[in-house]
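User: Hey, quick favor. My workstation is busy. Could you predict this chain's structure for me?
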Amino acid sequence: MNSSHILAGASFEAARNLAGIGEHGHSFRVLARADAHPGSEAVLHADLAAAVAPFHYAHVNATLADGSDLSIARYLASQCGQAVSLQLASAADRGVLLAEDGSEYVYVDTRFEAAHQLPHVAPGHKCGRLHGHGFGVRIVADASRSSLNDILLKAWPPLFARLNHKYLNDIAGLDNPTSEVMAAWLYRELAANLAGLAWVEVRETHTAGSQFDGQTYRIWKEQHFESAVPFDAAGNYTGHSYLIRLLLQGSVDRVMGWVLDFGDVKDRFKPVYRQLDHNPLDKLPGIRAADAASVAEWVHGELKPLVPELARIDLMETPQRGVSLTFRGDMQWPLL
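Assistant: No problem, here it is.
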């Protein structure tokens, strides 16, 4: 069954006092996700703006006795008039996630630099040549069982030492180091030392990556496009720099080691992308309307025959406003 969600973002600057750390400040970022229904977009944006207002250029502890990330996130979620999933980032590399079912997670974004090559690709494929990446890694754990320090100081450093500035193909279990294989390898290695490990994400580039939660493989590919949309009843137009995220879910090919080649995802999207980029969206053939939800629905209709693994589309009009459409599976809360 398809499901439609709205995405609303906000940010604020605040100081706080944490035990063992003392007085300090952050640039906080928030993203909330809620079920879409008539009028829900405006309500969620208004609720979120009102929720962060007491913290902006203020001291968190003036509102909350506990100024931790989880406490702030719980407060913000409680101020929304509808059930939400919520992501709070208190720094560029860490934060918390709250799910609608009550689950709470901590996450850390980290990275390592390494070389690799894929041994089973067709002759001439660029990934068959020796090359390297600054790999991004997100580690997500149950907040009731692990802390940020458990990830940063205990679980990750031994793996970082094994991976950083190494040739990955020489490491046992990484002879075919695709993003999917690496995510599964990291999950297994981390699970032995990190209680409540929920999932691991690996980014080869800033536009593509994979996720593994111990059972299911998911990959994503992102792209920007520049488009015009109607602005008012007089026929005037405005425009946005859109971010679209295509999320795929499926089994990993035993030989190739991937759900689908990222290059193939991009190639299959190209004819759709050409219709979106530098064009007025209300003129797309067969589109219902030019709002973000309608555009995402249109993209799904165009891509479904070309990418049967497609499970979700996220479309952001701005960094703080967008939609998320899920078509199959239960996609983990986002890769943002």
